Amino acid sequence: MTVISTKQNAEELSFTIVAEFDAKVERVWKIWEDPRQLERWWGPPTWPATFELLEFTPGGRANYYMTGPDGEKARGWWHLTSIDAPRTLAFDDGFADDNWEPVESLGTTHAVVTLDDIEGRTRMTITSKFESADQMQKMIEMGMEEGMTLAMGQIDDILR
Questions:
Q1: What is the pLDDT of residues 117-152, one digit of tens each?
Q2: Percentages of the chain per state (helix, strand, coil), in multiples of 5
Q3: Which of 32, 127, 129, 158 could bridge 16 with an S-S bond, Cβ 3.0-4.6 Å?
Q4: CA dist., res. 29 & res. 47, Å (int)
Q5: Helix (H, G, I), strand (E, B) or coil at 138
Q6: pTM over 0.90
Q7: What is the pLDDT of residues 26-75, one digit of tens each?
């Protein structure tokens, strides 16, 4: 199984998901920096992602949408805050309206991704921090944990 653990921490307002892959860190890094690979797994299988923009550099922006089973679209944005290839990546993440403007009512999440070598394999840890307990609860109720677990379950096929 790709995902080995998930953890919600109400005191730290964080959600952490950890997965391991049978691939080197450099190979796993490519699933983040290549938009065509990224959209093959960012989002659950029933909500595939399309990245219209990915400026993979500190200060860069990403605009993407996920398409639901009935054709509905959920838009999102990232603001990449730091990149230390091929080990760490950090970005602010939020929902967007049809003009790619942030949906303020859903807040912003700050995500930190780390890739660690484990004897030639890779452990990927994504920690998302929320603005408030209400925002964290809302994201969890919207299916963040299940969605991220399903999304990361698609990575093994990309790495083959």
A1: 999 999 999 999 999 999 999 999 999 999 999 999
A2: 25, 45, 30
A3: 127
A4: 22
A5: helix
A6: yes
A7: 999 999 999 999 999 999 999 999 999 999 999 999 999 999 999 999 99
